[in-house]
Amino acid sequence: MFKIIHAQFLAPGIKRFVIEAPRIARKQKPGQFVILRIYEEGERIPVTIENSDPVKGTINIVVQSAGKTTHLLNMLETGDSILDVVGPLGKPSEIRNFGTVVVVGGGVGTAMAYPTAAALKDAGNRVISIVGARNKELVILEKEMRAVSDALLITTDDGSYADKGFVTDKLRQLIENGTRIDLVVAVGPIVMMKAVSALTRKENIHTVVSLNPIMIDGTGMCGGCRVLIDGKSEFACVDGPEFDAHKVNFEVLVQRNAMYRDSERQSMEEFQAREQSASVEPMSRKIGETWGTPSGHATQGEQR
Ligand code: NAD
Ligand code: FES
Asked: CA angle at residue 195 from 228 to 238, to 5 degrees?
């Protein structure tokens, strides 16, 4: 069992957990993730590691409520425990001095972009970060991103904070202004990474995206996380999650991630109906008993 030392909402539906996991904290590098399970029959979900403290033996994960499991996870509080946390998984981000790097974080993807931005800054890069969210309330890690960036540009889709627009509008402006860009790192929804990739391909700017396909075992055995890179199958959990954006087949990724959408929707509806009728104990105490899952598959990068 992995104890939750601290749990706190960063934004509506987005929660940060500080978890006691000394072995993972010692080994974790930017770009890696964990797969966790909150009860015995529960599905395994890949989750972003936002930070780790090897001295205290803790990792920070950031979870967005998107399906049943992430809703259940976000009901956990300080002092509760998570059944299994496996990791760190995936290859770390390539960190070296590239020159000027633009780090793009879309929504909760910002949590994954943050440790990479911090490491790139430490490696001597000029880091320009772009953070986008649907609205003001959903902008996360602004202070943290600012601290590791030479410049931080923020957009909101509805204009309720900073500049109205998408992250790609800021990236386009940088390109049009003639800013020298040696690398772009983008983490966020697939549509965003695809749009960033389309923009930088035209300019021949090397671009890396962190992919979030369905994951199950996280060890390269199940094939669940297969992605098509330059026409060849690769496994995001062991060969990635970061790939050269210009080689990624985003259409196949979208299709594969939609495979379980109906069962996920059904599972979420059942969860909500049962949640409304539950009246005895706080649900975070009854997770295993109350919310067994028939499928056991990991929801599509529900979080990551
Ligand atoms: P969101 O839908 O609110 O989008 C975040 C931002 O992305 C927007 O504010 C906008 O600036 C940009 N964006 C969205 N659509 C765009 C488009 N068509 N063109 C250009 N830019 C666009 O994001 P969310 O609700 O926080 O969802 C986060 C998603 O990121 C989830 O699907 C989650 O699975 C995924 N995620 C991915 C990773 C990863 O490793 N790739 C990590 C964490 C989360
Ligand atoms: Fe099973 Fe990657 S999650 S092969």
From this structure: 35
- What's domain 93-210's architecture? 3-Layer(aba) Sandwich (3.40)
The domains of the chain are located at 2-90, 93-210
Flag residues of the chain having pLDDT under 70.
260-267, 269, 278-304
The CB of 220 under 6 Å from ligand 1? The reply is no
1 Cα: distance to centroid of ligand 1 (angstroms): 31
E strand segments, 161-295: 163-164, 183-187, 207-210, 226-229, 232-235, 242-244
125 C-beta closer than 6 A to ligand 1: no
Q: For 260-284, what is each residue's pLDDT tens digit?
A: 666 666 667 677 777 777 654 545 4
Instruction: Measure 232 CA to ligand 2 centroid, in angstroms.
Output: 16
Closest ligand (CA of 253): 1
Provide the CATH topology of domain 2-90. Elongation Factor Tu (Ef-tu); domain 3 (2.40.30)
Interval 237-248: pLDDT, tens: 999 999 999 999
